[in-house]
TrEMBL record, chain B:
Residues 1-36 are annotated as: Disordered. This is Protocatechuate 3,4-dioxygenase subunit beta. Residues 78-106 form the Intradiol ring-cleavage dioxygenases domain. GO terms for biological process: 3,4-dihydroxybenzoate catabolic process. Pfam families: Dioxygenase_C (PF00775), PCDO_beta_N (PF12391). Keywords: Dioxygenase, Oxidoreductase. The lineage of its organism: Bacteria, Pseudomonadati, Pseudomonadota, Alphaproteobacteria, Acetobacterales. Gene3D superfamilies: Aromatic compound dioxygenase. It comes from Siccirubricoccus deserti. The gene is pcaH. GO terms for molecular function: ferric iron binding; protocatechuate 3,4-dioxygenase activity. PROSITE patterns: INTRADIOL_DIOXYGENAS. The keyword GTP-binding does not apply. Its EC number is 1.13.11.3. The keyword Oxidoreductase applies.
């Protein structure tokens, strides 16, 4: 990898969101299908995405801001569906989004990425946000997904949500230590 | 070898971003990943971004005063432009701020600092940049507040910022500081940024042209989001 020449300005430094970011939280934003939201009329498979975020001691992180970004059920980012959500973790470190299952997203050439959502984590103790992805267990496209393929096989499971009852998918996120989640530099 | 056909965003300039493992900032100890991040070639997921608008996300830029209410403290206007590294303005991008009140207390149930709450100061705002990338809030100068990172630890006066940009990979959450604050050189959050020039860019400039005569002083704080790379990157797979 060669460094690109730099010119002009330099991107502003990141700083922690701290413990009081909830001043910009709207709990309704965790439900992308909310009746008064942008997606109330969009059709698709309704799903719930949930999981626990834990630190290097395995302790739940109860103060996280989790943001979600995803394509629509057809795999497009350009359609009527606005695939953005924001969620606060609760006292047990759990996040929970209600959304539509995304479709395969176009990749390089004629290839497709497996259905996935991007997750961004902000919190006290994170001087820069963390980025990861949530994939769905059992998708045939998982085998050829360009991002999953770049993850060492032994760590891929940290990105793959498992079904947990009808329409519910669970992925726990471990910030540090054993079975640490794979985080992405995008 | 998988090649992306999406030019992504330029990597951070050396020293311009804080590390995740910052020993002087205690909360990073158990929260920083030990494994290096996996650098991936940009896909549509990273180069697209939510389309946000004031219709869906109500904007309000007046934190200091409104019909029938008025916050305590020194009124200030904070304004600036949101640009990318090539100097291009980001139009219609969502800028959110949140902050402590003039006494250094957040309107937040978990803030236990023994300082008065101000019932007229909520401390959060949201606005969308105009065609030239400008944003502008009227607020009050926040107070410094203590935290438990180490003995006698105080955060410098700051306003938290959240900015989206035109691509998922441009997302930024940061803090704006005030010129001349004696707490800056001893703050582990601010000092975690290795490059002094990058730190300086988080300090707003006092700007009389932004001030409103006989109403509020002015500060200028520009925000730069990552620029697009010239060419797509190749995945190491
Ligand atoms: Fe703060």
């Amino acid at each position: 990898m060669t460094d690109e020449p730099r010119f002009g300005l330099t991107a502003t430094a990141s700083q922690t969101a701290g413990p009081f970011w909830h001043l910009i939280d709207f709990p309704a934003w965790a439900d992308l299908l909310r009746a008064d939201g942008p997606n109330a009329e969009v059709a698709g498979e309704r799903i719930i995405l949930t999981g626990r975020i834990t630190d290097g001691d395995g302790a739940p992180c109860p103060d996280m801001m989790v943001e979600l970004w995803q394509a629509d059920p057809a795999g497009s980012y350009e359609g009527a569906f606005n695939g953005f959500g924001r969620c606060a973790t609760d006292d047990d470190g759990m996040f929970r989004f209600t959304t539509l299952k995304p479709g395969p997203v176009r990749a390089a050439g004629n290839a497709f990425q497996a259905p996935h959502v991007a997750l961004t984590l902000f919190a006290r103790g994170l001087l820069h946000h963390l980025v990861t992805r949530l994939y769905f267990a059992g998708e045939a496209l998982n085998e050829q997904d360009p991002v999953l393929s770049a993850v060492p096989p032994i760590r891929r499971a940290t990105l793959i949500a498992q079904p947990e009852g009808a329409g519910v998918w669970r992925l726990d996120i471990r910030l540090q230590g054993e079975r640490e989640t794979v985080f992405l530099e995008v | 070898m998988t090649t992306s056909d999406q030019p992504g965003y330029r990597p951070a300039a050396p020293g311009s971003q804080p590390p995740l493992d910052a020993p002087a900032y205690g909360s990073t100890h158990k929260r920083h990943p030990k494994q290096p991040p996996l650098r991936i070639a940009a896909t549509l997921t990273e180069t697209s971004a939510p389309r946000m608008s004031a219709g869906l996300y109500p904007s309000h830029a007046e934190l200091a005063k409104g019909p029938g209410w008025e916050a305590q403290g020194e009124r200030i206007i904070v304004a600036g432009r949101v640009l990318d590294e090539d100097g291009r303005p980001l139009r219609g991008t969502m800028v959110e701020i949140w902050q402590a009140n003039a006494a250094g207390r957040y309107n937040h149930e978990r803030d236990r600092h023994d300082a008065p709450l101000d019932p007229n100061f909520k401390g959060e705002g949201r606005i969308f940049t105009d065609a030239e990338g400008w944003y502008r809030f009227t607020t009050i100068r926040p107070g410094a507040y203590p935290w438990r990172n180490h003995h006698n630890a105080w955060r410098p006066v700051h306003i938290h910022y959240s900015v989206f940009g035109a691509g998922f990979a441009q997302r930024l959450v940061t803090q704006m500081y005030f010129p001349g604050d004696p707490l800056l050189p001893i703050d582990p959050v601010f000092m975690a940024i290795p490059d002094a020039a990058a730190r300086d860019r988080l300090v707003a400039r006092f700007d009389l042209d932004i001030a409103e005569p006989e109403y509020a002083l002015g500060y200028r704080f520009d925000i730069v989001l990552r620029g697009r790379a010239a060419t797509p990157m190749e995945n190491p797979a």
